[in-house]
Structure formats: C-alpha cells, structure tokens
Amino acid sequence: MVLHSHGRLASKYDSLSGDISANVRLTALNLFVAHGYQAVGLRQIAQGVGLKPGYLYNRIEGKEYLLFELIHDFEQELSRGVKQAIARERSQRKKLMAFVSEYTEFSLLNRDLHTLAIREGHSLVGSFRDKIYSLRNFRLNLLKGIAARECCEHGVKQTYRDLACEAVIAMLSGMLVDRRSDAQSGSMQRVAGDMAIKILCGSNG
After folding, report:
1. Do 195 and 171 form a contact (C-beta atoms < 8 A)?
2. pLDDT digits over 68-77, tens only?
C-alpha cells in the first residue's frame, strides 16, 4: 500500500514480515471502507489475508490500532505535503491555491485512505484520537495563517475568517469523500480553489 508521491506506509508490526504486514493493512483498509469499521473484525481481516485468526490476534494490538495506523499515516503525509507546498509560494493567494491543490491531489490519489479518515476517524479514542486531531489542527492553523494575510485587505474579521477556514476544510473533505465522483484532479483543484477564495474572502475575492 503506497501513499502516492509522498512515501510508503511503513509497517509497525515487528512480528509480521513485510509482505504480510502490507497485506494486512491493505485488507483492513478495503474492509473498513467497504463495510465500516464497526462491522469488521480481526477474524475477517485474517481470512482476507489467508491467515488463521489466532496468528493475527497474537501479533497485532487490535483492529483499533490498525485503524489508527492507517489514518495517522495518511494525515501525517497530507500535513507534510501541504506544509511543503505552501512554503514554496510567496504570495498569500498562491499559498492558498497551493494548500487546496496539494490537499485535493494527495487525497484523490489516496481516496480510500481519505474516505477512511473522514468516515471512521470518530471511532478512535484517547491518545489515538488526540494525535489525529493534532494533525488536523496543524493544517487548519496553516490555513488560518494564510487567510489572516490574504483576507485582511478585504476587512474580513478574524472570527469570520476562523469559521471560514473550518468551512474550507469541510468543503474539501466533502468533495473528496464522495466516491461516486470521477472528477479529474486538475478540474477539482480549480473548482475547490475558487470556492475556497469565495468562502474566505467573500465576494471581494
């Protein structure tokens, strides 16, 4: 299983061989997305990989850890990519477009992982949940920093900007999680970019 263009999902199961670990993760991802996290057990994952359930039970920490690992690696790579993309631009408008472009491209290339993160992230609790929220807040704060400079010339108040940034993230997530959409990356980036500017800066964008 590969995070396209950004690196490979690394296994954390020391007692499983690399091939088996990758198959476990891919099988878990497919089952979680197709049937929902709550409806899938380790027994089904083991059967999907061709392992005896007991073999898997004794070697991984449970299906919640599988869910966390899949979502965390996706969120971490997405955050890293967005940060690098906006750092390459000078103007705030271009930084905003780079944020949207990187977010949409990476999420489309890894649509199953993005879908899993959006639909099943609420199933994580405790430190697992906190780590995911931390990565999401990191991206939100990056966007707030861009909006503070891009939109200040339009007189947009900070309270509105903060809410608008959350709306942009929600808009991007909603566009990309729809698995029925076959929109090309380039066209989706342009639409999302235009919408982000209108949301953040209003009619003056």
Report:
1. yes
2. 999 999 999 9
Q: Burial, 11: exposed, middle or buried (Cβ in 10 Å; 0-12, 13-18, 19+)?
A: middle
7: which strand partners?
3
pLDDT in tens, 15-70: 455 567 888 899 999 999 999 999 999 999 999 989 888 888 887 878 999 999 99
CA-based nearest residue to 116, from 44, 28, 189: 28
| C-beta atoms surrounding 198 within 10 Å | 14
- Domains of the chain, earliest start first: 2-63 (1.10.10), 67-204 (1.10.357.10)
16 phi and psi, to 5 degrees? -110, 145
- Tokens 């690399």 map to which residue? 18
